[in-house]
Design a protein that fits this description.
It is a single chain. With 146 residues, this protein is of the alpha/beta class. The chain has one domain (14-130). Helices cover 28% and strands 18% of the residues. Strands 1-2-5 form a 3-stranded parallel sheet, with no helix packed on it. A two-stranded antiparallel sheet has the order 3-4. It is globular and about 45 Å long. It binds S-adenosylmethionine. S-adenosylmethionine binds at residues 31-33, 60-64, 66-67, 83-87, 90, 100, 103.
Length: 146
Amino acid sequence: MSDLTGVKQGTVTPYEAEIEAIDPKIFLLESSTTRNDRQSLLRLQRLVRRENDDYCYLEIGSHLGGSLLPHLADSRCGLVISIDPRPAVQPDERGPMFAYQGNSTQRMVDGLLRHLSEDNLAKLQTLVPRLYLWVIEGRIRSAASR
Ligand SMILES: C[S@@+](CC[C@H](N)C(=O)[O-])C[C@H]1O[C@@H](n2cnc3c(N)ncnc32)[C@H](O)[C@@H]1O
């Protein structure tokens, strides 16, 4: 059953209510995103979660997990993939080389567990690649190539 906004009825957790309300409060961990970024990300998440009750979130570059948290907290997200090679320093188009002190998957997971349950974290897959070879071949449509 759906309500007037198209949201399927069911138990809505406080975190899910924040997603639906586009409330940046759900960004409980430090994140490099601005308030506007967070609102834009939540709008996208709301759009996807209203249409799918088992979506996958793939993120490249996670640091402390701030932008992963809203998806880990979302029961409609069935899989969260975080890819981050966690180099000691990295070039950045904003100018200087940025160092991310103590940047590790374990620290990220520990931080996420301060706000989320083990069950929430069970859908998290973390990859720490040395080298990428990507092939993204999804839906083939001529409109997509215009
Ligand atoms: C700005 S932080 C990410 C912040 C996070 N998305 C948030 O807002 O909560 C950048 C992250 O990108 C990671 N990174 C650096 N080089 C990368 C690469 N080649 N591929 C994926 N991640 C990379 C760094 O280790 C760091 O954790």
